[in-house]
Design a protein that fits this description.
The structure is a single chain. By secondary structure, this protein is α+β, with helices and mostly antiparallel strands. The protein folds into two domains: about 1-35 and about 165-335 and about 375-485, Outer membrane efflux proteins (OEP), CATH 1.20.1600.10; about 80-145, no CATH class. The protein is about 70% helix and about 10% strand. The chain is built from twelve helices and six strands. The protein has helices at about 1-15, 25-35, 35-55, 80-90, 90-110, 110-140, 165-235, 240-275, 300-310, 310-330, 375-445, 450-485, and strands at about 20-25, 65-70, 150-160, 280-285, 335-345, 360-370. The strands form two sheets. It has a four-stranded antiparallel β-sheet, with no helix packed on it. It has a two-stranded parallel ribbon with strand order 1-4. The protein is elongated. The two termini are about 15 Å apart.
Length: about 500
């Protein structure tokens, strides 16, 4: 309903650009709330706190992550030394040398046998040499790693099993933070309403004082005309006329100041409501004559105030957040347990000797971390967090005491403003009667001009005091609602 009302208010403002727009107190409040930048910021803070809470809740669930990499190296990893590579590559040459040595030994032992088996040994040596050289080179090539171009990738799943209560505490902190942002928004909204009401009733006060100043100027202008005629008839002195003219000039200056103040106050109200500053607006209560009084005396209800004030709820939430911070700090120095599963693949792979192929394997397990000794760092951090929680508790107690005092003061001021309004009304009635008698006496020629001026001045003062008392009644009611937390 409020949004529909705001939209209709904005449309009416757009369609009546040249005509004056009458605004009620509720419409001014609604427009101010809709256009206040601080409230727009606090709305975004609420959304941010909601997303933070949702993000914290995801810590209960497993996390899956993927990693990959490539590395180019200058040299490759070698499983054989250079001498071993040379030995294997020349294995056939070595074997052929051994066969030649066997043939030479056979020739020394038996030339006949050497002549008979020599060609065979020579062929055998050549064959064995080529074969073993090939086998040795194949072995060297098979043991080559070719790790100058290395690729690796892994997918890892991590599921927390026990983190010392950190996840649960952090979730509570984010929940409290979201509630705190809502309470902050509520506090900001009440401040916007309070400011709007103050400016609204200031405009109403100045509008009434403008009419009062205009009436006073009209009275003095009539008196000035009458005294001028009397001076011309010789029944009044020039001094009487000068006194009236001085008062008239003062009244016109006062009227100018009131009009300027009214224009500036309306501009301020337009700025609060998000309306063009030059818009010609009027308020529904500008023509108000009598403000109804609250029935009976107002008594301070501190219990309701403490239950309704968003500041108290904000401090309570802050205290709860600091208590959970103690658990977070303590969890840092408790054992943590997590389930870990992953699949890792590399190229070159080593699962079937060295191959330039992507091959991998699954791994599962648990990871336990147990802090052993940190020079009591955890103890100090926990104690610091406890001190912060106690500070928040003291601030909460102090705020309760101040709010109790504020409610009592606001209740007293409401009752006092009501009494002052009654007295102002009585004074105004007496001033009206006094002015009536002074005017009749002046017209009959039995009361001098100075007495009429005094009666008009007293009438002006009584009327002004009545206007101020009426506005004080409304503002003290607003301040009481603010102190009770019911301003909305």
């Amino acid at each position: 309903m409020r949004k529909i009302f705001i939209i209709s208010s904005l449309l009416s403002l757009a369609l009546t650009s040249e005509a004056q727009t009458a605004l009620s107190l509720d419409s001014c409040r609604a427009l101010a709330i809709e256009n206040n930048k601080e409230l727009l910021i606090s709305n975004e803070e609420i959304k941010a706190a909601q997303y933070t809470r949702k993000a914290a809740h995801t810590n209960y669930f497993p996390k899956i992550s993927g990693t990959g990499g490539y590395m180019r190296t200058q040299k490759e990893i070698s499983l054989l030394s250079n001498s071993q590579k040379s030995t294997f590559s020349n294995l056939g040459t070595t074997v052929g040398g051994l066969v030649d040595q066997a043939g030479a030994a056979l020739g020394q032992m038996s030339p006949e046998m050497a002549q008979q088996f020599g060609p065979i040994l020579e062929v055998l040596g050549n064959k064995l040499g080529d074969t073993f050289n090939h086998v040795g080179q194949s072995l060297v090539d098979a043991l080559r790693t070719d790790t100058r171009n290395m690729f690796a990738g892994a997918i890892t799943l991590t599921q927390p099993l026990y983190m010392g209560g950190k996840i649960r505490a952090y979730n509570k902190i984010t929940q409290y933070a979201e509630e705190l942002s809502r309470e902050k928004h509520s506090t900001g909204m009440q401040e916007v309403i309070l400011t709007t009401d103050q400016v609204y009733w200031q405009v109403v006060s100045l509008a009434n004082k403008q009419r009062l100043a205009q009436s006073y100027v009209a009275l003095l202008e009539k008196l000035n005309r009458d005294v001028t005629l009397m001076v011309n008839e010789g029944v009044a002195t020039k001094a009487d006329l000068l006194s009236v003219m001085v008062k008239l000039n003062e009244a016109e200056m006062t009227l100018t100041k009131v009009e300027d103040g009214l224009s500036l106050s309306k501009m301020l109200l337009c700025q609060l409501c998000g309306i063009e500053l030059s818009s010609p607006i009027t308020l529904e209560d500008e023509s108000i004559d009598d403000i109804p009084l609250m029935q009976g005396d107002v008594y301070a209800d501190t219990e309701s105030a403490l239950a309704n004030r968003p500041e108290i709820r904000s401090l309570e939430l802050a205290h709860l957040m600091y208590k959970q911070k103690v658990n977070v700090e303590r969890a840092e120095y408790l054992p943590s347990l997590a389930f870990v599963g992953s699949y890792m693949a590399t190229s070159p792979s080593v699962f079937n000797s060295f191959e330039n192929k992507f091959k991998g394997m699954w791994t599962v397990g648990v990871m336990l971390q147990v802090p052993i000794w940190h020079w009591r760092e955890g103890h100090y951090k926990v104690q610091a967090a406890k001190s912060e929680a106690r500070i928040a508790q003291y601030k909460l107690e102090e705020a309760r005491e101040k709010i109790e005092l504020q409610v009592n003061q606001a209740s007293f001021k409401v009752n006092e403003a009501a009494k002052q309004l009654i007295m102002a009304i009585n004074n105004q009635e007496k001033a009206d009667e006094n002015l009536r008698y002074a005017t009749l006496g002046f017209n009959e020629g039995v009361i001098p001009t100075s007495n009429v001026l005094e009666a008009q001045t007293a009438w002006l003062s009584a009327q002004s005091q009545k206007i101020d008392a009426q506005i004080d009644v409304k503002l003290t009611e607003v301040y009481l609602q603010r102190s009770m937390g019911t301003l909305h």
